């Protein structure tokens, strides 16, 4: 699984530029020279850091890498050069490896790696049968798998071939023939179910060629999760079965399928069958009730509203903040552009800038409002690790917040955060 991990840069001493994963991008994880390099070339990420300026110095490699990659590097913040580089599991929000995201990553990647060569007649592997018969589930689910794998489900395509139906096309999406893989994995409404169950699985349509190959890929991935593999396979089985049941009822009743009831039923059935599954589901942080309108702070507090805006394609971001007193008067404001790898980093940057501005203005009692749940929940709960992308920023925000006599951290809706939002968008437009 180490192929899926990436380095978060601290001082850059541990990380090799050309062979380690350290760029925060879905497909480009490390720079690649675009031309054959002759002569000496830096090898450690540390060689690319100007320690005095705390900035990237890419002069030594900029002529051998793509300008897009140059931007990916420049968008990595250099915060604390005394911090060691840390290995992060970027497919999970907090950067820690867990079964759910590991599974998700493996599904995306192993489907490509294990893709079985095309055969016209499907021979289902013995091993796959074995893992299905050994599943601890109600017999109906095993039977369902058996029917799906032997292509004996009464899908519209099968009924058409047997001349029972006049039309093989899926009646929910009308976009392709209803085969087993379409009904269970590819019909658009099922995407919501697969994502909604605790695996957060995104079906990759390109990689699904047939139901049995897909399931073979799933079981191949499960081998990586010792101890958890059986529970995950049970969830996959239950979900397939519940999707099929919902598809049949909806067709019979002449309505659209209800993905949310499928998710609910699947999770509850899974809970009945696997009593030890709490560790696999990570609950989302609870949200404070959103305020619809901005409210002035009570005396003697100053309210600091911050916001970040970010464009995915250009990676250009903007942060905005404004300070207002108990009468609603604007005391100070700021908007600034920055280059970053993600929206959450820009949001965290905005919080940091807001705190710096409040400190400059000598406001010692503040209420900080942001619409970033990631940052606010981390500041409210010091044990929370938070999104891995902002760990260094959160550390800096925590350090800076000790200067204040009192800080209240509030999450607000974007509508109530209009002033800061406008400032962030404005700075972005100037870039
Ligand atoms: Zn469909």
Give a summary of the structure in a few sentences:
With 431 residues, the chain is α/β, with parallel strands linked by helices. Helix content is 39%, strand content 12%.
Largest sheet: 5 strands, mixed
Q: End-to-end span in angstroms?
A: 39 Å
Uncertain segments are 110-121, 278-292
Mean pLDDT: 80
Level of helix content? 25-40%
Percent of residues in beta strands: 5-15%
Count helical runs: 14
What strand order characterises the main sheet?
Answer: 7-6-5-8-9
Small molecules bound in the structure, each named once? zinc ion
Alpha-carbon Rg, integer: 26 Å
How many discrete structural domains? 3
Q: By helix and strand content, what is the structural category?
A: alpha/beta
The beta-strand count equals: 9
Q: What best-fitting shape do the alpha-carbon axes yield?
A: globular
Order of helices and strands: EEEHEHHHHHHHHHEEEHEHHEH
What descriptors fit this protein?
five-stranded mixed sheet, 431 residues, alpha/beta, Nucleotidyltransferase, domain 5, binds zinc ion, two-stranded antiparallel ribbon, 3 domains
């Amino acid at each position: 699984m180490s192929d899926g991990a990436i380095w978060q840069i601290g001082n850059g001493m541990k990380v090799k530029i050309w062979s380690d994963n350290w760029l925060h991008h879905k497909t480009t994880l490390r720079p690649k020279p675009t031309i054959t390099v002759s002569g000496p070339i830096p090898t450690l990420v540390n060689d690319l850091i100007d320690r005095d300026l705390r900035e990237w110095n890419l002069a030594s490699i900029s002529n051998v890498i793509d300008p897009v990659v140059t931007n990916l590097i420049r968008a990595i913040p250099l915060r604390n050069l005394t911090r060691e580089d840390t290995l992060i599991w970027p497919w999970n929000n907090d950067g820690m490896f867990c079964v759910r995201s590991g599974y998700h990553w493996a599904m995306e990647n192993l489907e490509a790696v294990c893709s079985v060569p095309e055969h016209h007649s499907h021979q289902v592997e013995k091993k796959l049968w074995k893992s299905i018969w050994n599943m601890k589930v109600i017999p109906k689910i095993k039977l369902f798998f058996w029917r799906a794998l032997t292509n004996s489900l009464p899908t519209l395509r099968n009924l058409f071939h047997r001349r029972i139906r006049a039309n093989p096309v899926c009646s929910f999406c009308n976009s392709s023939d209803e085969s087993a893989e379409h009904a269970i994995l590819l019909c658009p409404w099922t995407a919501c179910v697969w994502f909604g169950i605790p695996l957060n699985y995104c079906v990759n349509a390109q990689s699904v060629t047939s139901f049995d190959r897909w399931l073979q890929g799933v079981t191949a991935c499960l081998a990586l999760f010792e101890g958890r593999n059986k529970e995950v396979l049970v969830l996959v089985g239950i979900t397939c079965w519940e999707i099929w049941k919902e598809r049949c009822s909806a067709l019979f009743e002449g309505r659209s399928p209800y993905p949310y009831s499928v998710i609910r039923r699947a999770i509850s059935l899974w809970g009945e069958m696997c009593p030890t599954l709490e560790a696999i589901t990570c609950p989302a942080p609870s949200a404070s009730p959103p305020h619809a309108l901005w409210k002035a702070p009570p005396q003697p507090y100053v309210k600091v509203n911050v916001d970040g805006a970010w464009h995915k394609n250009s990676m250009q971001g903007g942060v905005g903040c404004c300070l207002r007193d108990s009468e609603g008067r604007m005391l100070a404001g700021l908007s600034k552009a920055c280059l970053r790898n993600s929206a959450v980093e820009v949001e965290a940057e905005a919080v940091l800038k807001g705190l710096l501005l409040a400190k400059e203005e000598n406001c010692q009692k503040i209420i900080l409002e942001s619409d970033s749940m990631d940052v606010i929940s981390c500041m409210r709960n010091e044990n929370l690790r938070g999104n891995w992308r902002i760990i260094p920023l959160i550390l800096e925000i925590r350090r800076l917040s000790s200067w204040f006599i009192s800080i209240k951290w509030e999450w607000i809706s974007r509508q109530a955060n209009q002033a800061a939002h406008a400032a962030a968008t404005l700075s972005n437009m100037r870039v």
